[in-house]
Amino acid sequence: AQSVAQPEDQVNVAEGNPLTVKCTYSVSGNPYLFWYVQYPNRGLQFLLKYITGDNLVKGSYGFEAEFNKSRTSFHLKTPSALVSDSALYFCALDNYGQNFVFGPGTRLSVLP
Amino acid sequence: EAGVTQSPTHLIKTRGQQATLRCSPISGHTSVYWYQQALGLGLQFLLWYDEGEERNRGNFPPRFSGRQFPNYSSELNVNALELEDSALYLCASSLLGQGIGELFFGEGSRLTVL
């Protein structure tokens, strides 16, 4: 069965420092992977996706993610965190159009 | 272009009542997904509709039901409400056929069961 894991419930980082939010997945076949962000009391906003091609995917708000097939990972990164990046981040897997499988979420706190 | 819209924004019900939540997808999107997000928790998949048909269903009891109308808007009904149904209900749409398109989410409907 397809699944997504986000091993960290909470990530704290100082403003201006690089950050990584981790995601690993399990799927048979080629994965379609996504990152979403959720601000308090809001819906989810799409950040970026990996379908095929270059393993480094660039997305919105200065975020990027690196697909690593051998490690079955799709970690989200930014070189310099902003206080405004503080939010809940979800990694997701498209189950061949059947439904999206979301990870449990990682709460990011960027400290000024 | 209008995004995914959901109504009502907030809904307060008492245990045993019924709740109806509505969702209008982005114009041209044929698929609508419903998710439940309980406070502090992740997203739990409820239902997926496409072209008026229920395509997939999550692990929820039958009192959670819905439908999709010919204009692709959708309704989620929750019967015999229980306290643990209190949650943010998120609707998302996508253009199935792209097959690998992202989901576009509405702002959600917050249901409180007293």
Briefly, what is this?
The complex is a heterodimer of chains A (112) and B (114). Chain A is 0% helix and 52% strand.
Give an account of the 3D structure.
The complex is a heterodimer of chains A (112) and B (114). Chain A has 112 residues and is mainly beta. Chain A has one domain: Sandwich (Immunoglobulin-like). Helix content of chain A is 0%, strand content 52%. Chain A is built from no helices and 12 strands. In chain A, the strands form 3 sheets. In chain A, strands 2, 5, 6, 10, 11 and 12 form a 6-stranded mixed β-sheet that branches. In chain A, strands 3-9-8-7 form a 4-stranded antiparallel β-sheet, with no helix packed on it. A two-stranded antiparallel ribbon of chain A has the order 1-4. The mean pLDDT of chain A is 91. Chain B has no helices and 11 strands. In chain B, the strands form 2 sheets. In chain B, strands 2, 4, 5, 6, 9, 10 and 11 form a 7-stranded mixed β-sheet that branches. The N and C termini of chain B lie far apart (37 Å).
List keywords for this structure.
heterodimer, A: 112 residues, mainly beta, Immunoglobulin-like, six-stranded mixed beta sheet, four-stranded antiparallel beta sheet, globular, B: 114 residues, seven-stranded mixed beta sheet, 11 strands, 0% helix, 51% strand
Shape of chain B: globular
End-to-end separation of chain A in angstroms reads 41 Å
CATH superfamily of chain A: Immunoglobulins
CATH architecture of chain B: Sandwich
**Number of strand segments of chain A:** 12
Mean pLDDT of chain B: 92
CATH class of chain B: Mainly Beta
CATH class of chain A, please? Mainly Beta
